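To whoever is covering the structure queue this week,

Two jobs came back overnight. Logging them here so there's a record in the thread.

Job A:
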Amino acid sequence: MEKIKRDDAVHLLSQVVDPEMGADIVNLGLIYNIDIKPNNDVNVILTMTSPMCPVISIILADVQLRLQSIPNVGKVDLELVWEPMWSPEMMSDDLKYAKY
C-alpha cells in the first residue's frame, strides 16, 4: 500500500472554504496538525474561527469527504479544538495582505 503524502492532504484541505470568511481553511490557519499514520489513518486537529460558527458541521463534513477521497486512506479522524483560540494573526501572509 502506497503511503499517503501530507502534501496531498494539505492540497485537498486547501479546497475547503469557510463560506463566512470566503477563504480556505489552510490559509485561514484553521489546521493545527495533520498526522498520517503508517497504516494511512489520517488524524487532523483543527479549529474554527469561532465556537459560534454556524457552518462548523458543513466544514467538518467537507474535510471528512475530501480526505476520504484519497486513494488507500484508512480511518479519518477529525479533532475540533478551541485552544489555542483562532485569531486573524494565524492567517497566511498571502491572505492577510490580499487585496480584495
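Job B:
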Amino acid sequence: MNIMIVGVGGQGTLLASRILGNTVINEGFDVKVSEVHGMSQRGGSVVTYVKFGDKVFSPVIDKGEADIILAFEMLEAYRAMPFLKKGGKMIVNNQKINPMPVIIGATEYPENIGDKLRENIDLTEVEALEIAKEAGNSKAVNVVLIGVMAKNTDIAYEKWVETIKTTVPEKFLDVNLKAFEMGYNL
C-alpha cells in the first residue's frame, strides 16, 4: 500500500505519518516512511511517503503509484494528483492556503481546483478545518483526515485509537481523539 501525505509546513503532516506508520507497524506490516520538506517553516510544501506491506524495500512513491493521497490543502492536492494511481483515492481538506507567490502578488491561486480534481479521480473532499475547530482545535485537521482515511482501511477503529493514545502528546490527546472520531464517522 502506497500512501502520500501532502500539505504545507505547520499542518501536522509529520504527526499524521507517525500515526499511520505506527498503526500499520502494530498490525504487523513492514513500513517505510520518507519525508520531503520544502520551505516547511515558511508554509512550503511537505510530502511524506508511507509504504507498507509484507516486505517494503523503498519508501519512495513515483508518479502513478499512490493508492491513497491524503491532502491537507487544495493546491497541494492538485500538485500531487499525478502520483495517484488509476483507481486510487484522494482525500482532501478543502482549505486553501496561499503560497508565497500568491502572497506577494506574483500569481493568483488557481480557481476551481476541486472541480479539476473531481474530473479525474475518486475524490473525497472534507471540511476538515471546520471539523477540527468543532473538535476543539483548528490544528487537529491532520487527525480529522486520518480518521476519514482510517474508515477506508481494514484496520479496526480501536487500533487507530490505541496508536493515537501512544503517539499524540497527553495535553492534546482528548481533542485529537475527538477529531479522529469525527473524521471517522463522516
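Note for Job B: The radius of gyration is 16 Å.

Please reply-all if you pick these up so we don't duplicate work.
Q.
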